[in-house]
Amino acid sequence: MKPIILDVDTGIDDALAISYAVRSQELEVLGITTCFGNVTVEEATRNTLVVLEHLESEVPVIAGAGKPFMRTPTKGSTPHIHGEDGIGNTLKGLPKRGAEEGNAVDFIIDQVKRRPREVTLITVGTLTNLALAIRQAPEIVELVERVVVMGGAVTVPGNVTPYAEANVYADPDAADYVFRSGIPVTLIGLDVTMKTLLSIDEMDRWRTKDSTLGPFLADMTEFYMGAYERFYPGIGGCALHDPLAVGAVIRPDFVRGDRMRLQVNLDGEALGRTTGMPDAAGSVTVCTEVDASLFLEHFLSRVC
Ligand code: BDR
Ligand code: CA
């Protein structure tokens, strides 16, 4: 089993990524850390616990950053994409358990140090918790197995501005800090995630499953698909951004990329743009190819 920490801003596709990770026996989920992004960090923590309750999972949840690494927030909540509650308006009540004591940054540092070169960190929200962890304990750069980041748009347009992808745009300084730190990163950006598609028909099949998980995930995903339809008329489904980062850890052969040095625009019109320069010694592997049908089949076999 691969030990992982999943860092989330739950969010609908985060909920799908959590389900995929928890339902995959190849992964040992050491903990799920939360940050602001799609929603506030408090809402992300609550939503994560709600999703885990549906999964009947006791994986620890540790709350993290509520604001960007350096600047005042540039991105608020996204009710038009993820609903008022962040999970497609499916929230029925508060989760039965709460988050663990302590904070996400200390948890990441502690887990990585306990198991040198074993722990993979999967980030599917802003890179704030990881940037704070590297600043506090720079030695973790050498001690993680690697970091798989859902974020960025290197060869394709952005999704919040023509240049920037949402997770990088919400905290560009954190992303820049992480990419410059030398920590080994596999970048799962819009370059590959926009090539994945969960169709309305596939999502609808979840409703017929006997557990409460299927209808719960279907209801929130239907909301997300509604947003997709407004942004990309006729698309007939939604991209699986955050789940692909999990998939790429279970099956690295789902994606392929090239080593690069990555830069993030920190001001101006192109704020949050990720620019890659080919560099065989670069610390970031930017994925540009994905076997989308193999990944989708695997994801569906694990979730619902
Ligand atoms: C990313 O932004 C968020 O809205 C999603 O959860 C995903 O992590 C896609 O750009
Ligand atoms: Ca996310």
Question: Describe it for me?
Answer:
- With 304 residues, the protein is an alpha/beta fold.
- The protein has one domain: Ribonucleoside hydrolase-like (Inosine-uridine Nucleoside N-ribohydrolase, Chain A).
- It has helices spanning 12-22, 41-54, 79-82, 104-114, 128-136, 140-143, 166-170, 172-180, 190-193, 200-205, 213-231, 241-250, 292-302, and strands at 2-8, 27-34, 61-63, 120-123, 146-150, 185-188, 198-199, 237-238, 255-264, 274-278, 284-290.
- A nine-stranded mixed sheet has the order 3-2-1-4-5-6-11-9-10, sandwiched between helices. It has a two-stranded antiparallel sheet with strand order 7-8.
- Helix 1 crosses helix 11, helix 4 crosses helix 5 and helix 5 crosses helix 8 (172-180).
- The longest helix is centred in the last third of the chain and has 19 residues, at 213-231.
- Bound molecules: beta-D-ribofuranose and calcium ion.
- Beta-D-ribofuranose is lined by residues 11, 13-14, 38, 124, 150, 159, 165-167, 241-242.
Summarize the structure.
The chain has about 300 residues and is of the alpha/beta class.
